[in-house]
């Protein structure tokens, strides 16, 4: 899949999960495609800004390009009239640029490359999309039940918008937030591009499904209630002031253009959406994002503006019987029986012998990019303020009535009865909802319901989950085997693994990531999991309990407006200081499965931390991950937290990775001259082994070899690489626990969790320093477990079964 376009390339993204306090988080964007991968997650480390090259500022260009010509395509077909027989038969109708469709290489890989973050494609925790972000650090003054930080604020509309005439009607479907738009509409899941395209993997460039017309800085953009003309993007660079300027020619064969060529050739309609920042909309747009309707692509061509080639597309609304909401209130309605005879004149270039439409009032120009006469009107290459040829605007191209949009403009709301088969489709499980009553696109912010966020609108769809059996969610060790689990963890230097240990039925592996900083993996087995209060019971109970899980807002939203994590969460015990809008319920009010988790984690914490620093966990965060939801790279180090953290995995398997933070991993020296061989080398950082060897040469006084080795090192160094390898991957299965012990784990390293199954719960226990929590909240972190219920690692059971074993 790819997502391309010229307009509003606000880098977007969406959250993966956010941890609670100040950890950096991953977010995702949902760039999905209609039928296959419905949701992609691209994850990047840390909160990060969109690369300027793809972040369009959004203000329209001031000053008009003085020259305005149109340029067409190579081959025979400049301005490409649509491929229907009735329109200009002399114009060839295939690929308007005469170029072969782009190959499959411009699929999701390319798309990812166009993302602001240069994340590593092979990064396990960067499956597709989710960009680092941080959960909002908003202190919860009190843990009184709090609703989600208010229905996401309306984003300020462009000031021009206010002065436009009143529209004739209201859009059938609309959104205030980009994430809600993308999560609710299968035809529009582009967080950072104007166009949402899909289907590029089968040797074609795919098709455009939806196109957002927003920050359109094309002075020549055009929109009325029937026709839209806009540019197709590419070649733009953001200036320091955020203004987008075209610095390169737009390529007619780029993946920003070819999907539209395919739409035109194969008669695949495109659904257009207008944003409040679009300066060309004839009327005031009521919402931030407003679905306009279903359009055909009638023409795609190139022209030269200020010396740069610009690719443009003309769209025509298919259904004139239902007048567009964006027409001017009180104006006469467009005739539903259009005049197909109006046509812009088509002239043949005497230089290249190709035909082009006359699109400008300034006169006819050859639109063949390869022609010496390209984009020249009456011998002039720079025309002043041209306007569109009215005949070109008024053209009406026939469209067979039976060809409809492949996707529903207003998708029906989900019915709320999720069953196991629907869980197969990740988007089904956690996509947004278009309100049946008011047409608003809403993200699914709560685990248990879809709810329209429009004030006064009461539409909601409660979700009734069936309990999915453990055998389906976590078949891994469903053999009823009583043996110890087989470990599949992977690690590399400088991580050191201790000898395998057993603790009754538990297998234990401890990994030292740096001296004194250890991660212990407790591998559960079947016997452990099926005990009362064990993983099997907790997995079932969590599915059957209304926990009130919701998605967290992210602090640094990479798209305009607020974004929320993909996964859901709820906090118990001491209030999570930095969590926004998450109820923090006391342990005494927690459902039994939560206390089972606390019980298990307390045992693991005590077992793993033997140096006297163990502090009983007084907070538990329960995260729910549906299919393809993950938590990207982040750390759990916050000043109000103890350094030790333990987690219990329930349901689907997951990989938990650890790596050094970029700021410590990345090689600092820009070139060999400022390399200092006396600085200590941090084990695990970039080229650390080579540097240690290099520094040894220096220390031994072998200067010639040192210089040679230094030159070789700098030559081999990948200076563009920002992140080091995952040095430890824990393969977590149902019932497993992990204890992180030591400040360095959070300070110098980061971790991420990528669940693989359809449903997983990650329950994480932490110690929150009570001195920073209001005294009246302290009771929330307190709990007592009856002595006979205190989890003992199932040791008594093990001893009863294996009385001959020694401790
Ligand atoms: O889901 C998990 O197992 C761990 C989640 C995590 O890293 C966190 O809550 O900070
Ligand atoms: Fe974490």
UniProtKB/TrEMBL annotation:
Residues of the Fe2OG dioxygenase domain: 616-769
Superkingdom: Eukaryota
A biological process from GO: DNA alkylation repair
Pfam families xref list: 2OG-FeII_Oxy_2
Coiled coil ranges: none
Disordered as annotated region, ranges: 1-172, 238-260
Bias-annotated ranges (Basic and acidic residues): 15-34, 155-165
Positions of 2-oxoglutarate binding: 625, 634, 751
Residue ranges with Polar residues bias: 247-260
Molecular functions per Gene Ontology: broad specificity oxidative DNA demethylase activity; cytosine C-5 DNA demethylase activity; ferrous iron binding
Protein name in UniProt: Fe2OG dioxygenase domain-containing protein
